[in-house]
Structures are given as C-alpha cells and as structure tokens.
Write a structure and sequence with these properties.
The complex is a heterodimer of chains A (about 850) and B (about 500).
Chain A: E1 7-10, E2 22-23, E3 29-34, E4 37-42, E5 48-52, E6 59-65, E7 68-76, E8 80-85, E9 90-96, E10 101-105, E11 113-119, E12 126-132, E13 140-142, E14 147-153, E15 160-162, E16 168-173, E17 176-181, E18 186-191, E19 205-210, E20 216-221, E21 225-230, E22 239-244, E23 250-255, E24 261-266, E25 271-275, E26 282-285, E27 292-297, E28 303-308, E29 312-317, E30 322-327, E31 340-341, E32 348-351, E33 356-361, E34 366-372, E35 388-395, E36 400-408, E37 414-424, E38 429-437, E39 444-449, E40 459-464, E41 468-476, E42 485-494, E43 500-505, E44 511-516, E45 519-524, E46 530-535, E47 541-546, E48 554-559, E49 563-568, E50 573-579, E51 582-587, E52 594-600, E53 603-609, E54 618-624, E55 628-635, E56 653-659, E57 664-668, H1 678-687, H2 693-716, H3 727-734, H4 743-759, H5 771-795, H6 802-833
Parallel strand pairs in A: 9-13
Antiparallel strand pairs in A: 1-57, 2-3, 3-4, 4-5, 6-7, 7-8, 8-9, 10-11, 11-12, 12-14, 15-16, 16-17, 17-18, 19-20, 20-21, 21-22, 23-24, 24-25, 25-26, 27-28, 28-29, 29-30, 31-32, 32-33, 33-34, 35-36, 36-37, 37-38, 39-40, 40-41, 41-42, 43-44, 44-45, 45-46, 47-48, 48-49, 49-50, 51-52, 52-53, 53-54, ...
Chain B: H1 21-26, E1 33-36, E2 43-46, E3 53-57, E4 64-69, E5 75-80, E6 85-89, E7 95-99, E8 106-111, E9 117-122, E10 127-131, E11 136-141, E12 148-153, E13 160-165, E14 169-174, E15 179-185, E16 190-195, E17 201-206, E18 209-214, E19 220-225, E20 232-237, E21 243-248, E22 252-257, E23 263-268, E24 273-278, E25 284-289, E26 293-298, H2 316-319, H3 344-350, H4 354-361, H5 364-369, H6 371-384, H7 387-391, H8 396-409, H9 413-430, H10 438-479, H11 485-494
Antiparallel strand pairs in B: 1-26, 2-3, 4-5, 5-6, 6-7, 8-9, 9-10, 10-11, 12-13, 13-14, 14-15, 16-17, 17-18, 18-19, 20-21, 21-22, 22-23, 24-25, 25-26
Helix pairs in contact in B: 3-4, 4-6, 6-9, 8-10, 10-11
The chains are: A mainly beta (about 850), B alpha+beta (about 500).
Chain lengths: ~850, ~500
C-alpha cells in the first residue's frame, strides 16, 4: 500500500501577485513569482513560455541581473539565491545564504553583491543586508557573509527602494522614513507626526519609490496621500509636497522609466498617473477589477504592469491602454459554490472575482473565462457588504446553469436571487433565461438538477433553511407573438418545518433525497410523493449522495457529529455505518467509487470506498496539513490504466480538492511531467522576429517556408516502434488466454503490427505537431489505405486454395487493426492540437 | 478594462393582462358614444363621423331584422317580423322590391356573390332564394327542422351559402343542386354563422361555443372555442381576416387570432351583446346591446405625430458610410466597440455624483411613471453604502419630495424592504430639525399615520391566517393517513 500511494501535487493556481513582476530588458517577457516557481510570460501573447523550477519553498523575490540583462536572480524562503537564464529556462547558479530570504534587490553600482531582507533574531525584526556573491565556476556556491545596511525595516519589498544612481536606499516603516547613503555610510531618519488626533491618525507609510534620475523619494500613506520628498540629504532642510487622490491606502508607487510621471494604485482599482508629479495633470485607468497590489515598469519604458489581488497581471501600454491580461486562478476568500466541472469544457468552475464564476482549465493552468453572474458595478471599498454568489449547479449536460446570489446586510434583511442560464450554442456562452427574486425566505443550502435524459423536462431542486424545498421546472412561456421558455415553481415540499440542509437526485433521476436536519426523506420525482424517511439521530446531515452504477440502490449520508451512514433503498434499512468525521464527500460520476475526506489530528485523511462495501478500497493518511474544504472528481478524457490495484479509482477520473488556504491539490501517480510543450517553444522562436511593417509582407513567406521545412524534417525523422501504444499488442496482452485463437495465427498479426511503423512513416507523428501537419498526415494515410486495398483486390482472385485465403484474411485483419490504430491516434491527438 | 455596468433596474411581473400588439391595436378606440335607437320598425343609417342618423327607412309594419348592405353598398335588404323581405335603394326612400313568401319572421337575409340574388331564412323553417330583377322566388329549402336564425353567403361562389338554425345544424346549400351539400352538427342552437373570405372555413356560434369548421374537408371540426360563459350571439371578422370577434350575452366581445385561435383581446360592455359589426379597416366597432343601446367606437388614427418640426438629422449616407466595404485580403480589421448609451442617473453614478443621481430619479416625471427606477437607485446607493450621504443635506423642498415618494410607495410590498430602510435613514437624519418647517412636519405625520395603518392591516391579516390555519388543520386531520401527514399539510398551506 505504501509503495502504491499517490503523491499529492499542487496543480497550479499559485499566487502571481505576491511580488512585483519584472519585465525583461526588451519588454518582450514578463517574469513573475508563482509559488515555488518563477514563470516567464510573453507580453504579446500572454502565453507562459517557461517555468523556472528549482526552489523548494516560496519564491519571494526576483530581479534582473544588472550586469547581464538576460539573467535573473531569484530568492526564496529556502535560503538560496538562484541565477537563471530565463530565455532558455536554465538554472545557472545557486548561492546558499542560510537565512529565510524575504525580499531581493539589486542595483548596478554593487556589482557582485545583492541586497536581501532577512530576519535574524526576533521574529519581527527585519534587516536589509548586502550579500556578496562569489565568482566561482561551480554551480553551487556558498554566499559571502551578509553585511548590514539597514536595521528594523518592514519585510515587504514595497517599503524599500534604491535611488536611481544607487547612492542611497530608502526604507519606510510605520511613521518614519529612513535613508541610508552609501557614500557617507550614514542614515537620515524623517518622522511624521503620529499623534492621536484624527488628522494624522493615518499617516503610516505604506510604500516607497525613488526617482530614477533626480534625488526625489515618493512615499504612499495609509490615508491615501502621496508625499514627494526632496532635499533629504540634510535632516533639517528637507521639503515635501503632497498629492492626494486616493481615498484609501496607497498600495504601490512606481516612477516611469524616465521619471517624468509617477504611477500609483490602491484599493479603488484605478491606476493613477501623475504627470510631472503635479496634482493637476493626472490620468486615470479605471475599473481594473481588483485592488492593485503592485506596479512594475519596464526598463525600456514602453510597458508597465499592475498585479492585482485577484491573481491577475495586466500589462498596460504607455498610453494607459491595457494590452494583455495574465489571469491565474482567482483566489476568493471564500469559495462558497464549491468545485464543479463544466460538462462541456471539462473546466473547473468555482467562485472567481466578486460576483463572477470562473472557468479554469486544469490542463493549461489558465483561466478560460469569467461569467458575470451579479451583473452590477463592483464598488471596491472596505466595509461594504457585497452580493455573494453562494450556490451554482450545472444541469442537463451543461445546457443549464443555476446560480444563487445573496446579500445580507442586517439580520433579517436578506436579498436572494436565483438565476437560470441557458447555454447558447451560437455564442458559446451562457445567457440569462430566468431571474427569480426571493426564491426562498431564507438562505438556500443546496441546489441540484435532475440528471435525466434529453426528453425529460429539465428539473431543478432548491433546499433552503426556511424549511422548504422547491422544485422548479422549465415551462413553455410562448404566445402567438414569440417563442419563449422559463422556469416556474412546480412543487413545494417540507417535512415538519425542519430546515432543509441538502438535496440530491439519484443517478436515473427517479428519486430525490432531501435531508431535513437529522432526517433524510426520499421523494418520488414523478409525483412528488414522500416515499420513506431515514433517521439516524446522529446530528444534522452534512453530505448526501446516491451511489452510482451498480451501487445505485445505496444512499450515503454524512452527519456533523461524525457518522457515515449507508442506507439500502430497496430494503429501506441501514446497510452499514461508521464513525468518520467527513468534511468532503464526493461521488465519482464515472464509477461506483466515493471519496471521503476526514479531518484528523495529523491533517486530512482520504478514504475511497464503494457504497456496497463498508471496507475502504484505498486510504491515504494526511494528504495535507489543513482542512479540505471542497473536492471534485474530474472525468479524464482518456481512461488511464494505472498498474497499481490500490489506484484503480483514479483510472477514469481525477480527484481535485481545495484546502482552507485556497490551494488546489490533486493526486498524481507519475513523476512531475514536463509542462513546457514544443508548441510554446516554437512560439518563442517565432517571437524573435521583430514585428515591423515588413513582417507583414515578408513574415508570411518565411512562415510558409518554415512549414515546408518542418514537414520535410518530419518525413526524415525515424522513430522506433513503441509497443505500449499499439492496440493490437495491448489487446493481445489483455485478452484472457482461453478466448484467444491459436498462437500460429496470432504470430504474423503480432509481427505485422510491430512492423507498421516502418511501413507507414506517417504513423510516427509526434502528438505535439501543429494542425496543418496533421491534415497532411490524414491525407497521406488515406492514400496508403487505398493502395494496399487495390493490391489486395488484385491478389484475391489469384489465390485458389485455403491457405491463401487464410493469409488474405490475416492481411485484412492486420489492415483493420492498422486502420483502427490510425483512427485512435487521430482521436488522441486532436485534443492536443485544438487548444 | 470592463466598462461601467449600468444599474440593474428590478422589473416586476405585470399582473393581469399582458400588453401585446393586439391590446394596443384594439385599445386604440376612443371612448364609446352611446345613444338609443328609438323605433324598432325603422332602419337608421348613421354617417361615419356624425352621431345623428342621416337616413331612416320606416316602411316596416313590424320589427325589422338584419339589415344588410350589398357588397357595392348601393342596395340594402332587411327582413321583418311579419315575414316580408324588403329591398331598398340607398338613395331612395320607398322599397325597391318586396319579396313575399315567408309565413313567419325573417331573421336573416344576405346578398349572394353575384349581387343579383337574395338569400333569406325565416322562423317557418325555410330558406328561400330570391331573384332581384324580377322579384321572384327561385328556390325554397325545407331541410331545417327549427327556426333559421342566421345565414351567410359565400363571397366567392354565387351559388353557395350557409344557414344556421335552432335545430343545432349549420347547412351549406348549393343553388345548383336544390339541396344542402354539407351539414354540420353544432350541438347547440346556432346563433350566428360566418364564412371566411376564402370560403374554406366556416365559423358557427351557438350556446357558449364558437366552432370553426373546415369546409374543404367536408365539414370537419377544426377547433371549438369556449371563452364566453353565456350564449355567443354574434360573430365578426376583422377586415384583414387575421382576427375573429365574438360577442356574447356575458357582455364581452372577444378577439381571437385566426392562426392560433387564442384570445388576444377582450372588450367589456355594459349590457348583453346581441349584434356586432366592424367597419372597413377596423375603423369603427359597433355593438348593439339588450338595453337598447348602440355602442360605437372609433379607432384613433395612428402615426399622426410627425407634424412637430424636427431637428435635422444627419443624412442616411452618414450612417452607412463604409458599411458595405468589402474586406480585402491583406486588410487588418480593427473592431471598435459600439458606444454604450447610459441613462442620466447612470452617468451620475459612474462619476460617483450620488446626490445628483438621487435628485434625478426623484423628479416627479420619474417617480410617478417609473417608481421601480427610483427604488432601484435607492437600493444601489444603499448597496454602495452611501444612501445616508445622498439623503443628507437637503432643503425643505427636496426633503418633501423624498417624503412624498416614501408616502406614495412605502406600503407597496415590492418596494417595502428598500424604502423602509430609506425611511429610517431619513428620520435619523432629519430628527434634529423637526419642527422647523410645517410642510415637512405634516409629511412626517402622514408617514407615521401610514405606517400605523399598515401595522393594523398586517395584524388583521395575521389573525385571518391563524384562523385559516386552524381550519386547515382540522380538515387535514379528517383526511390524512399517518404516512403522508407532512405532505398533505404542505399542499394545503402552499395553496
């Protein structure tokens, strides 16, 4: 069991906006931290071109090497500074410092040393130190002894800034600004009044930036003011001017590359550009979607980017026009909707931006799109009660989406709205069909569609804390003027005025289970009649689900007091029950398996079982240290054949789960795969072509030539036949021996299938090839299909006796296998080529 | 990035009648002009616009029935209680022809399609065909076994006509065969029949039913309509043939769509309706009622509003400029998003001018016509947490405007939750200055009275609910079986 245990892996969705992003010197790439990795994005295509992997803990800072702008320094909590070649994604050097590193700074004057923030003694005393990096040819090196520059600084890299010429470094914390001059080796300190009166109560510094050319420091403050400090080399003669537009704290400041304008952003999610550092001449870029966390400016001066609280980076042109958006998994503070899978796109669906549902592609770790559910202007202000999207469900094979949103300002004043969205094939999106205001008198606790055939009327059930569950059906609302359909309430049910906590349809849609606190009621879905009730007196029912496929006669319920019960619906009796404090219970839609995650002292444990047997199939202790909030099975496109008996449950679907700290994890039985596909490499090569007007004239010819060349190269490439992928072989190995024909008959078939690759050069295409080439392959393979057939038809009349006939049969069989193989390959590759 | 999203105006389902094209069309009649017809043995002819009879034919000895114009409008024929049928020239006064032959009252007469014959049906169970030029009886049909009270000649074929009788049948006669060719069983005494202009469909009315028959299929019942709750007395087709009208003793005229046979509009009258007619182009609808009143409604003419001098708009070619440009192969297409039009209050909200936005929606033109817009803006302001700021700092005139709106709409259940919150804020803000303005004080007292009245009302309702709950509880106990106790109870409560 131990050997077969699946590894828990983090599958994307790490925070992109933890630190300022860094532009490459030519503004073509944007580098940003992402969990333990550094990601390299193309600013033109928004594609991730490289992932720099190597750190073993959170990456906390990245800076370009000031001496070689094709190299990148990164530092991490694991105490190392790494030097990368980010264009090729190669690790060049690793320097070990030994302390937890919180931030990294470089500047051109200090040639062979970098500056890092560490905390030495006490947990909240941070120091800025300079670390000399030795020049050694070895890959791994010990960094030199750190030298103290500034003591008692803030751990945030926004609170430290280096002067343009590298003469001084400015750091802010609480109510003071300290400036260290490298030449004088002295520190000046400027303190703002922090008296208790209201006027100065919010004078705290939040961020600092230095002018690239002049001696000028800009600081942002908690009350929304920006102060520009000049003449700070004398502690008595300094002056400052004030700029005020933000009404909440200033999150980040940045000077443009030439220093002609100052950029600031805050919670208002408006980027403000102060031209010539004057109050009068400011420009705005409003409605950026979420709080601006960081602002970074390209060294070339043509681009800037803002990092946002919703895990998004917006690349903005010089004329304040957004030109690219890099969006990761939005990490909302509370994922109320849970995890869902869109049946059409197989994308993971969960709460995204406030009032939005995000569709997140698990394969490419990229957000596909956001569906605006609330459709109202979002006012980003602290202390406001926003409309929350609390429940969502997909129904009828993705044709319908139901969402519930609520807003509760005071006790008893609940605004509830249920919306039903129809999938529109023409626009490939969801369109609002029906809006129901106040569907229930209290919060909606559960929402589920009836999974039924296409002929049935779409049916939705909502359960609410007001003690009722309602059945909604799609009704024809058309008259002589137009055709229309809308949802109406069909039935209202309750059980002794208990709060309805959960609802769930059986797989065939014939039964509805609704739990009312401690009791589970079963309703006939045709007549809405109460069939039977189950009550275990073991606390409120928290999770409820029916078994699938062969286990469809079982109903599972998990209660708050830590009991997992399984009822048999045919005998209406308890089949088995066990003590298990289940926090997540999810059935696999493709098999009978049910995954339950329980909280224990060492973290969360996973149990996979079939409802028919009380014994778990697979147990993995402490899958993560924190509580698991939500889980979901995502069906695989192609069933995987996992060798291990214990991991059979991962064959058809993959289990994803979301923890309390919003990290999305999954199980993997393989070693981490290479994420970078050749398509993105190709992309990289193409991008090196400058986009001049000549490109539009000449680029196309060049592209065409390139394609031809590629095609030629593919033809020449020779690949050894692999035995794993050939269906004839796998069929041979997996069919029981007693049903197989004689070995003499199979032998030639087997050999033929192995020889296939040399016969048909087209079959050795790698799956990563572009679509164009695949078209070519299809054509050539079809030609080949035709050729042997003709030959065979010509040959058939010649052979008279039985032996020849058998041979012909064999040939035919192998040809069939060949055809099937090609078909299979096409199917397999298509999904690679489409995204 | 994403543009400004306008405030979502909460829409409420309109209870009662839906507003459709049909209701607008049929509602477009001016108020009715009611006046009495004095003599029962006279035929009055009224002008299109004047309300006075312009001509009267009074050569009847007894009650006259069923005056009918010929298609060209030059001849008029009418039956009478004494069994006579008289033909008039519109310009003359004395009858042109008199057809004698019926022994009892003639209730229906009509011209055939060739204009030279008259069909009449009488209470002596017979249907006769008359020749106009020599005023002779051509044919007599004696197939009905009860009073013949209605009839209609085909507009296309001069030989065909239908009659409906109290013997529950509608018969179609062909003058070439001397007998009925089709007979359909209506089921009730037939009060009115109507042939569609195409002649393929027949509509009959009798009892509470209006039935449509397909004559081309040999009298197959197409649809049976039961929309009145008393006997249907008269039928009429609109001039376009798209709508069918039926009048009934239940004082209603219903308008049906002839494609779906669904009721699209309904008129209410003061008394039971006996007869109904529509003028050309549906300009006038005339209804005769049992209380002796004739109701005439003229339809308002449409699209006469162009008389106002309009601002000169850009020429048509300005708008289509570049629209029909065909994209060349090497062109790079740049899509410019179309400009979104924002309401004035949205423009204010976009720029965070909250007080101004509130002022805009508190204008009387908005509060009276579209109170839901005002309420939605108040809701939006409270969502943004700035409602108190927007309501504060108003002078006497402005605050009385707010109070007026609250008084008018506070008790409406759809607005109550939002407005109660707003009223609380208003009271909180303006409590210190109370007593300074008699106008505002009066409004506050009015509001107080309103709230008290509402509380009393709610109390009464709760009492009633309690009583009803008790009644239901006793009823369910009698019926219920122990297994489905909970369910039955629910079904009752949810009614």
């Amino acid at each position: 069991m131990e050997a077969a245990a699946a590894r828990v892996v983090r599958c994307g969705g790490s925070e992109l906006s933890l630190r300022r992003a860094v532009f490459s010197a030519d503004s073509r790439y944007l580098l940003c931290v992402s969990g333990d990795f550094v990601k390299v994005y193309s600013t033109a295509t928004e594609e991730c071109v490289h992932v720099l992997q190597g750190h073993r803990d959170l990456v906390t800072g990245i800076q370009l090497n000031p001496n070689n702008h094709l190299q990148l320094y990164s530092c991490s909590f694991d105490g190392t500074i790494k030097l990368w070649d980010y264009l090729d994604g190669i690790l060049i050097k690793t320097f070990t410092v030994g302390h937890k590193l919180h931030a990294l700074f470089t500047h051109a004057r200090a040639e062979d040393s970098v500056f890092v923030t560490i905390n030495k003694e006490k947990p909240d005393v941070f120091q800025l130190v300079s670390v000399p990096l030795p020049r050694t040819p070895r890959q791994d090196a010990e960094a030199g002894e750190p030298r103290l520059v500034l003591d008692c600084i803030s751990p945030s890299p926004k609170c430290v800034a280096f002067g343009g010429q590298g003469d001084y470094v400015a750091a802010v914390r609480d109510f003071y600004l300290s400036v260290y001059f490298f030449r004088k080796k002295a520190t000046s300190r400027f303190t703002l009044s922090s008296s208790e009166n209201r006027k100065h109560a919010k004078n705290n510094f939040t961020c600092v930036a230095c002018h690239p050319k002049e001696d000028c420091i800009a600081t942002g403050h908690k009350d929304g003011k920006i102060r520009l400090w000049r003449g700070f080399d004398d502690e008595r003669k300094y002056t400052y001017t004030c700029l005020h537009w933000h009404h909440d704290l200033v999150m980040d400041l940045a000077f443009s590359a030439t220093g002609s304008s100052l950029l600031s952003g805050g919670r208002e999610s408006v980027l403000v550009e102060w031209r010539d550092a004057a109050e009068k001449t400011k420009e705005f870029l409003p409605r950026l979607g979420a709080t601006i966390e960081h602002i970074a400016v390209a060294p070339a001066g043509d681009l800037l980017c803002t990092s946002h609280a919703d895990n998004k980076i917006i690349v903005i042109g010089r004329n304040l026009e957004a030109c690219a958006v890099i969006q990761g998994l939005v990490r909302d503070s509370s994922v109320l909707t849970g995890l869902m899978v869109d049946p059409r796109t197989k994308a993971l669906v969960l709460n995204g931006k406030p009032g939005h549902l995000q569709f997140y592609s698990l394969q490419s770790d990229k957000q596909l799109y956001n569906l605006d559910i609330v459709q109202q202007e979002y006012i980003n202000d602290c202390g406001l009660v926003q409309i929350e999207l609390t429940k969502a469900a997909f129904g009828c094979f993705g044709a319908w989406l139901a969402t519930v949103e609520q807003r509760q300002e005071k006790e008893g004043e609940l605004e509830l709205q249920m919306k039903l969205w129809a999938y529109n094939k023409k626009t490939q999106g969801f369109l609002l069909n029906t809006k129901v205001s106040a569907p229930h008198e209290d919060r909606v606790t559960a929402l589920c569609f009836r999974s039924a055939d296409k002929s049935d009327v779409p049916t939705l059930v909502t359960a609410s804390r007001d003690g009722r569950f309602k059945v909604w059906v799609l009704a024809d609302d058309s008259d002589i003027y137009r055709k229309a359909e809308g949802w109406t309430c069909d039935f209202v049910g309750s059980y002794h005025k208990y709060q309805a906590t959960n609802c769930c349809f059986s797989e065939d849609g014939s039964l509805l289970a609704v739990s009312f606190e401690e009791t589970v009621t079963i309703w006939e879905s045709d007549t809405w009649e109460l069939r039977c009730t189950f009550c275990q007196r073991a606390g409120r029912v928290r999770h409820l689900c029916f078994g699938r496929l062969t286990c469809s006669k079982y109903l599972l319920g998990a209660t708050e007091s830590g009991t997992l019960c399984c009822w048999n619906l045919l005998s209406c009796a308890l089949e088995w029950s066990t003590k298990l404090g289940v926090s997540v219970m999810e059935p696999d839609p493709r098999s009978e398996h049910v995954a339950a995650v329980a909280r224990s002292s060492g973290g969360s444990d996973l149990f996979v079982f079939k409802p028919s047997e009380p014994r778990p199939l697979y147990v993995q202790r402490s899958i993560c240290s924190e509580e698991v909030r939500w889980g979901v099975f995502v069906p695989r496109d192609v069933p995987e054949a996992l060798a291990s008996e214990a991991l059979q449950w991962l064959n058809r679907s993959q289990f994803y789960f979301l923890t309390a700290s919003q990290s999305l994890l999954t199980f993997s039985s393989k070693s981490p795969e290479e994420k970078l596909t050749p398509t993105s490499k190709q992309l990289l090569a193409e991008e090196s072509l400058p986009a001049t007007p000549f490109y539009f004239l000449l680029g196309r010819h060049r592209q065409q030539r390139g394609e031809q060349a590629d095609g030629a190269a593919d033809g020449e490439r020779v690949q050894l036949p692999t035995t794993e992928g050939v269906p004839a072989v796998s069929e041979l190995l997996h069919t029981p021996a007693h049903v197989l024909p004689s070995a003499a008959f199979l032998c030639s078939l087997f050999i033929n299938s192995l020889l296939l690759a040399t016969e048909a050069p087209s079959a050795e295409e790698t799956p990563e090839d572009a679509e164009m080439e695949e078209e070519g392959e299809r054509d050539s393979s079809e030609e080949e299909d035709a050729a042997p057939e003709q030959a065979q038809q010509a040959g058939l009349p010649d052979g008279g006796d039985g032996g020849d006939e058998a041979e012909a049969l064999q040939q035919q069989l192998s040809k069939c296998a060949e055809k099937e193989l090609r078909k299979l390959r096409r199917v397999d590759y298509s999904w690679v080529a489409v995204p | 990035m994403a543009g400004y999203k306008p405030v979502a105006i909460q829409t409420y389902p309109i209870l009662g009648e839906k507003i459709t094209q049909d209701t607008l069309y049929w509602n477009n009649y001016k108020p009715p002009y009611n006046y009495a017809v004095t003599a029962s043995s006279r035929i009055h002819i009224y002008g299109r616009y004047s309300q006075e009879p312009i001509k009267t034919f009074s050569r009847f000895k007894d009650t006259a029935y069923c005056a009918t114009y010929r298609q060209d409008g030059r001849l008029l024929v009418a039956g009478s209680e004494d069994g006579g049928v008289q033909l008039f020239d519109i310009t003359g006064r004395a009858p042109l022809r008199q057809f004698e032959g019926h022994t009892k009252a003639v209730h229906t007469v009509d011209f055939t399609a060739d204009k030279y014959h008259v069909v009449s049906g009488a209470d002596d169970y017979t249907v006769k065909l008359w020749d106009i030029p020599n005023s002779k009886e051509i044919l007599t049909f004696k197939e009905h076994s009860d009073y013949v009270r209605c009839g209609c000649a085909s507009r296309l074929n001069p030989d065909l006509f239908v009659t409906g009788s109290y013997d529950h049948t509608v018969k179609m006669f062909d003058t070439r065969t001397n007998k009925s060719v089709v007979s359909v069983e209506h089921g009730q005494p037939v009060e009115s029949v109507l042939l569609f202009p195409s002649g393929g469909l027949l509509v009959s009315a009798g009892g509470r039913y209006v039935k449509v028959w397909d004559m081309l299929k040999g009298g197959q019942l197409l649809v049976s309509l039961k929309n009145h709750h008393k006997t249907v007395t008269c039928l009429c087709l609109s001039s376009s043939g798209q709508r069918l009208l039926s009048g009934s003793l239940d004082r209603k005229v219903k308008v049906y769509s002839t494609t779906s046979y669904k009721v699209v509009h309904s008129f209410d009258y003061a008394a039971s309706i006996l007869s109904l007619a529509l003028a050309h182009e549906d300009e006038t609808i005339v209804v005769g009622m049992t209380n002796g009143i004739l109701s005439v409604k003229h339809r308002k003419s449409e699209a006469k509003k162009d008389s106002l001098p309009r601002r000169r708009r850009p020429a048509y070619r300005t708008f289509i400029k570049g629209k029909n440009y065909i994209r060349q192969k090497d062109d790079i297409l740049i899509n410019r998003p179309s400009k979104k039009h924002l309401e004035l209050y949205d423009r204010d909200l976009k720029n965070f001018r909250i007080s101004k936005a509130l002022d805009r929606v508190l204008e009387p033109s908005c509060t009276i016509k579209t109170p839901e817009v005002t309420v939605s803006i108040i809701k939006e302001l409270s969502r943004r947490g700035v409602l108190a700021n927007a309501l504060a700092g108003r002078d006497e005139k402005e605050i009385s405007r707010v109070l007026n709106f609250l008084i008018r709409n506070l008790s409406q259940p759809r607005f109550a939750s939002v407005l109660i919150n707003a009223a609380e804020i208003v009271i909180d803000i303006y409590l210190p200055v109370i007593g300074q303005s008699p106008v505002v004080d009066k409004k506050f007292l009015l509001l107080q009275g309103l709230v008290e009245k509402e509380i009393d009302y709610q109390k009464e309702l709760l009492e009633t609910m309690g009583m009803m709950g008790m009644l239901f509880a006793t009823m369910t106990r009698k019926e219920s079986t122990p297994a489905s106790d909970g369910l039955l109870e629910n079904k009752r409560i949810e009614f």
